[in-house]
Amino acid sequence: MKFPIPIISTIYIALSVVAAELTTDARARQPMSTPFSEFLLRNQKFIVDVDQVGKLDPAQIVGLKATEEPAETWKKLRQELTNLTYLRIASEAVSLPPSFWTGITNFPALKYLVLSARSAHEIPAQISLLANTTNLEFLSIVAPLATNIGRSIYSLDTLIELNLKCGRLDLSDGISKLRKLQVLEIYGGPTKLIFRLPADLAESGIRQMRVFNVRNVDRLLPVLPPNLEELTLSKCDLKVVPKAWLKHDKLRFLDLNNNAIAQLPEDLSELPSLTLLTLDLNEIKSVPPIKLAQGNKAKITLYANPIRDISKENDLLIRAGQIEK
Question: Which of 40, 42, 47, 201 could disulfide-link 63, Cβ–Cβ 3.0 to 4.6 Å?
């Protein structure tokens, strides 16, 4: 059967609209990428080790992987690598000396910094020297033995992303001073837990937060930051979703996988922006009637839960693909 051209055009337009809506819907259910992750995707081949610097055109090198270097080496690298925006530096020192921090400040265009200090027992106050890198947007600290990160880290007021992989410590108050901070990631160790989150987190402008291996997180984070759009909490032994977290205008992505949640929150109607709630790998046995905000098409995933019973009142959501298990 042949269709007239106008009908074919109408069908094509309709299919295009549906495809666009599905694409938009799929994107809405994905976590936002960050400037740092996008930078790495674009520039992997231009990130080199120190011993490769003389083998490549210095103008092409945007990233450097290094260990502690003598002051003369840092000065030479500064002269050669004028486009350096990414630095990954590793130290095995138990105590990080001032020279460690001043070496980093040799690169005025630096935007992305990853510090690996696996033997360090603390991140000292000298970290404030990094304020001299006035373009610094991303800071990652890997220090699994550290028991202290001083408040001087909050002097780095250009930061947009902060990633902490640390050991047994309290995180002091003051994070709300980082007015540009949008992304916060905190990783505790499975045996060396983080005991305290900054009390002023709820006053910060953070939009994305990921927390791993932090016990009592519901007590440490009773109220979410007002601009938060994405929250991931995993391996935190969370047993109950705090009611205060379920009253948030902007939260659209809530990932609570791999915890100890036994009861699915019933009332999600005060999360009008929600697009995805992930509760995989928990201890949920029954699914009560779920109430979403009017017109909300959020997806709820419940994979790897010992579910035995689902309320019949959820049939519409299941048929619409909004509940997956």
Answer: 47
Give the pLDDT score at 7.
Answer: 55
Write the single-letter amino acid at 74. W
CB 322 within 8 A of CB 299: yes
Distance, first Cα to last Cα, the chain? 42
Query: What is the reported pLDDT for 269?
Result: 97
Q: Is residue 148 part of a domain?
A: no
As for how many domains the chain has, the answer is 1
Q: pTM to 2 decimals? A: 0.88
Encoded amino acid at 48, one letter:
V
Residue 161 maps to a domain: no
Cα maximum dimension of the chain: 80
How many angstroms separate the Cα of 11 from the Cα of each of 8, 18, 141, 241? 5, 11, 54, 45
How far, in Å, CA of 307 to CA of 9, rounded? 47
Domain hosting 304: range is 238-325
Does residue 190 fall inside a structural domain? no
Residue 183 CA to residue 31 CA, distance in Å, equals: 12
Quote the CA–CA distance of 185 and 250 in Å, as a whole number: 19
Question: Phi first, then psi: what are they for 160, rounded to 5°?
Answer: -110, -35
Specify if 188 maps to a domain: no
The pLDDT confidence band at residue 5, using thresholds 50, 70 and 90, is: low
Which residue type, as a one-letter code, is found at position 24? T
pLDDT exceeds cutoff 90 at 103: no
